[in-house]
User: Fold these one by one.
Assistant:
Number 1:
Amino acid sequence: MSRALIIVDVQNDFCEGGSLPVEGGAELAGAISEYVDAHHGQFDHVVATQDWHVDPGAHFSEEPDFIDSWPKHCVAGTRGADLHPDLDTEYIQAYFRKGQFTAAYSGFEGLLAPDDAVPTGDRKPGAMPVAGGAPGGDLDVETGGVALAGEDAIGLDDWLQSHDVEDVVVVGIATDHCVRATALDGVQAGYSVTVLRDLTVGVAEDLDDAIAEMELGGVDIA
């Protein structure tokens, strides 16, 4: 049995200065880094998810309702889709990208990014390498830089199972959207799931309903 930390969507567009900022996002990036630095020995694996949109259809809108439609954000290969610079990626082993061509909130909808697309900290903003390409190469707009289903794609659940993970801890952005969806899907997939509330930030001012929904769904809140 092994234990994994899932860092959800700590990306520039979801932090202050981004196109869809969540208050406290930038500070959270630093707090998660400090937590991982101090506690990485408690986890066998650390992974991260990213919104990674190519053409998600009605998920993007110029007149968003902020329920089912949103301003354009986390477009594949742009600075907005990058992980926030205050999130230390030293211990992150794998990245799972979701929402290329549709809305996707749960990290369990994400697909494994190719090894050469892992952030190195030295590339120019927006210069996202893709599988088979040199660092700084052009993004494959047909796939968003990930393998699509049917092309030996590896999902988050596949990856966790292959690493014998049974317990997962979830942190990140946003408590009442992608963190909630990831945590609930984790329970449905058979994992023991804990959300560290102090290492999440939410869109709503009152997050009690989101917390209650997760608890009702079998998620432990710590």
Number 2:
Amino acid sequence: MSAAQNREQTVRALIAALDDYLSRFNGPGVADVRAGIGRFRGGPVREKAPHGIAAVDHVDVALDWMTANGEAPLAGAIRAAMPYLDWRAYDPYPREIIGETYATNHCATILIGEHGLIQAEDFDLGLFGFGPNILYRDHKHAAPELYAPFTGPNGWRFQPGDPLDWRPAHEPVWNEAWAPHAFRSGNVPFLCVYGWTKDVNIPAEMILCDDWAAVEAENQPLSA
């Protein structure tokens, strides 16, 4: 098998594994994201140079956790594709607002999308992660968004100033267009499959809150 054939086979296997994972769920947004996968997954796999940043180390830790917690096949599919993935930081936010800790400890890779391994118009599917005990501060965006976390627990809120609602791994979250949201990893790095179903090129916006320091200092509940 040539290197190009191996890349294509591995990337398609990962996308199939992610679609299979999402098929476990029937909550809001899941069908929309899976419809996008079905629409675009057959396109050619592009030759893109792989790229890594320091935050990808958190992905390795998350994959170890997945392997130890019943998700070895999915973790294996992600690991197999790592040599072909283009990991980047998502940087539309001023660092003085998003915070240096998050800014330097998160990463994302687009599998299907305008800048993905498979071309798509106004749709993104990818992997997104960040380190343990980090808050992705309150923000909003035009793109309706699905997060399906492989790791947990993670603390979520959907109104600025609300307390965190700690939820386990494998509990998808759907954010409608421009709906406020923030979330915080627990003691395990956050890793998920995400989908943006339209308006993917409109930048996200921060929502200023005065409780970020307190939320960032919060401990993961023992019962979460």
Number 3:
Amino acid sequence: MHGSGTGSEVDPTPGNGVDREFLALERELSVFLRRARASSGEMAREVHPELEPAAYGLLVRLDEAGPQRATELAAYIGVGKATMSRQLRALDDLGLIARDPDPADGRAWLVRITDEGRGRFRSVRDARRERYVRKLADWDRGEVAELARLLHQLNARAESD
């Protein structure tokens, strides 16, 4: 598969009990996550100049999964109730989400992405996907599929922890 292009290969100290593969994984994930955080900020600003980077993930989830309770979103994203409330309030203030009464429980609310939010989000998402297509143009489709499969497996494992 393709390397990170960082040029910083780690040579673990012999006998320290750490496998080379896990050191390489840690290094590559660190680089990937640093780039992903920066990219998330850029994408959030493209959706709306005042959108927090962390709130972008909520739009992703709402677009994919449809309306959900705030507690479901908080559990999925892995944040507390106060953080979720603050992020949802910001998205609501920007007109990117709306809250509707939950027909299954009149005391609860379902959060949904608005037409405005969906249009802005999908425009940014489609542009991001085009960047992926360009960056990975020399990859075999099987490699792209394998990367997606492995990332899905890693995410699923992280959800169950």
Number 4:
Amino acid sequence: MIKLVLIFFIESSNIEYFILSKKSFAIIVLESKQMIENQFHFEKLYHEYKKLVFNVALNYLQNIEDAEEITQDVFVKIYNSVDNFKQESSYKTWIYRITINQCLDYIKQKNSQKRFFIFGKKSQNEQEYLTSSTFEHPGILMENKEEAAILFSVINTLTENQKTAFLLSKLDGMSNSEISEIMELSISSIESLVFRAKVTLQEKLGEKFTNYRKKK
């Protein structure tokens, strides 16, 4: 009787182990399949949106190396969070948001570093480096570079929301409704932001370009 019970226990254990092994194998196969699908999905997003991300970053930062760094950081974030995308918006809108937030965070970090160096009383050469223009935009002709640098220097003084709304409207050519979805603000708020940005730019650029032309 004991022998029969022991044999039954061993056989039952083997069956249970076999079932668990099959389940584990099935889970591994499913996870591997999911990983392959996610990888394929990510590569598709990368090839479709890498230029968009780079151009948005370039418009924000006006520096090629910085834009390349932002592009890399954005796609790392996309890779890590694409599984959790809830499809409450389009991928394009979602990627715009990630890129804009990454750019704004990068600018804040740069500005905090500048304030640290300034208050730390660094050498004259470092001060000159911090105040020198690093304007780089491959889409702007060399003969227009100085004027474009002036334009962007004023754009960079706008509030975060004004700058975002203005860049998306005037450089990306997006409609107010598209910008509204990206910024998660009402259309009337977007209209107001773009209007105030234009007024500020007109006021500041008038003086800037007058001084610039006097120097020429």
